[in-house]
Amino acid sequence: MREILEAAIRHFASLLIFLIFVRVILSWFPEPKSDSILRQLYFNLLRIAHILTDPITGPIRNLIRKSPLGGPGMVLDFSPIIALFLIQFARDILIQIVRMIF
User: Fold this and answer.
1) Given CA atoms 79, 30, 49, 14 in this order, what sign does their dihedral have?
2) Which residues contact 55 (CB under 8 A, 6 or more apart)?
């Protein structure tokens, strides 16, 4: 049972990390102009990444905006980097809790 829970936690954290990377990398490229399969793939991947990562990156982004580091002139979005650290931290804590319980 313990191994299954640990694997589930690791896989879920890996999925979130992967989607954050997809979101960041896709933000570096302009959207495809033509009405092609590439454009559909681009927007579908971006939509999925936003839906699944916004609950994590959104509150972090809001906290950064309210801090002295943020504000309306904030050029770079550091919320994905902070989210990556928080996901890894939460993953490690959850795995330790599972090991203590089982």
Assistant:
1) negative
2) none
Segment 10-59, tens digit of pLDDT? 999 999 999 999 999 998 888 888 878 888 999 999 999 999 999 999 99
The span from the CA of 79 to the CA of 7, in Å, is 26
- How far is residue 11's CA from residue 29's CA, in Å, rounded to a whole number? 27
Q: How many CB atoms lie within 10 A of CB 102?
A: 11
Q: Which residues does 42 contact at the CB level (< 8 Å), separation at least 6? A: 26, 29, 31, 32
- For 78, residues 6+ apart whose C-beta sits below 8 A from its C-beta are 64
What residue type is 45 in one-letter code?
L
Residue 46 has, within 13 A of its CA and on its CB side, a CA count of 15
Alpha helices, DSSP H, located in 1-102 = 2-27, 37-66, 79-101
pLDDT at 56 (0 to 100) = 96
